[in-house]
Specification:
Belongs to the UPF0337 (CsbD) family. The protein is an all-alpha fold. Helix content is 91%, strand content 0%. It has one domain. It is elongated, with a radius of gyration of 13 Å. The termini are close together.
């Protein structure tokens, strides 16, 4: 996985964690769920890149 992809996935994960935390503090379940969705999407992308890397070797 390239550095750019790793950075994008890490940023998306961090943004998702921030959204989840803000949603939790403010009681906005929709924002909390959106943050969780963003984190899941970032983790899925990262896993996909890991699989690609495994087949390149």
């Amino acid at each position: 996985m390239g550095f750019t992809e790793k950075a994008k996935n890490a940023a998306e994960d961090a943004l998702g964690k921030a959204k989840e935390a803000v949603g939790d503090v403010t009681g906005k379940d929709d924002l909390k769920a959106e943050g969780q969705k963003d984190q899941a999407k970032a983790n899925l992308k990262s896993a996909g890149e890991d699989v690609k890397d495994a087949f390149k070797k």
